[in-house]
């Protein structure tokens, strides 16, 4: 199934057709309650509709442990949507948000959601734009 999704994610532009195709893949994941790792690579999450498509799967899946968004250019809008989603999945233990361009402005929003994840063990924010102020918020 990853091969089917990959061509959709290669381009930064998300047309209505691509979004609908991506939603169909997320619905398939929704039916598979045994998914323990979700990797999303190189997609621009400034479109909140994509996160809304993920919400049902995250609510129902109690085995999802690893949540990876790599090179997705989240920004403040994406982190706000992600924070909403993370509150729906209490099983996540590892969150990898590498190379997403997150800065100090989005860290406060993220931290509020992380407090809702009692099982969280790993938070990877490698290669983002977090300064001293953002580090203080994380601490």
Primary descriptors:
139 residues, alpha/beta, disordered N terminus
Question: How would you summarize this macromolecular structure in one to three sentences?
Answer:
By secondary structure, this protein is an alpha/beta fold. The chain is 49% helix and 12% strand.
What topology emerges from the helices and strands here?
Blueprint: H1 2-10, H2 16-31, E1 37-41, H3 48-60, E2 66-70, H4 75-86, E3 94-96, H5 104-114, E4 122-124, H6 132-138
Helix pairs in contact: 2-3, 3-4, 4-5, 5-6
Structural summary, described in words:
The chain contains six helices and four strands. The chain has helices at 2-10, 16-31, 48-60, 75-86, 104-114, 132-138, and strands spanning 37-41, 66-70, 94-96, 122-124. A four-stranded parallel sheet has the order 1-2-3-4. The chain is globular.
Strand content bin: 5-15%
Shape, please? globular
Q: Mind describing the biggest β-sheet?
A: 4 strands, parallel
Which stretches of 5+ consecutive residues score pLDDT under 50? 1-12
**Amount of helix:** 40-55%
How far the N terminus sits from the C terminus, by CA atoms, comes to 38 Å
Radius of gyration: 14 Å
Total strands: the figure is 4
State the strand order across the main sheet: 1-2-3-4
Counting helices, strands and paired strands, the structural category is alpha/beta
The protein's oligomeric status is single chain
What is the mean pLDDT? 79
Count helical runs.
Answer: 6
């Amino acid at each position: 199934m990853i091969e089917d999704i990959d061509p959709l994610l290669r381009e930064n532009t998300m047309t209505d057709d691509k979004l609908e195709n991506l939603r169909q893949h997320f619905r398939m994941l929704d039916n598979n309650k045994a998914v323990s790792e979700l990797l999303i690579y190189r997609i621009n999450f400034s479109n909140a509709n994509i996160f809304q498509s993920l919400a049902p799967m995250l609510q129902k899946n109690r085995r999802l442990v690893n949540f990876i968004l790599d090179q997705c250019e989240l920004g403040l809008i994406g982190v706000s949507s992600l924070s909403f989603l993370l509150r729906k999945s209490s099983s996540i233990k590892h969150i990898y948000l590498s190379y997403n361009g997150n800065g100090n402005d989005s860290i406060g929003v993220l931290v509020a959601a992380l407090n809702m994840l009692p099982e969280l063990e790993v938070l990877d924010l490698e290669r983002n734009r977090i300064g001293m102020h953002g580090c203080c918020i994380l601490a």
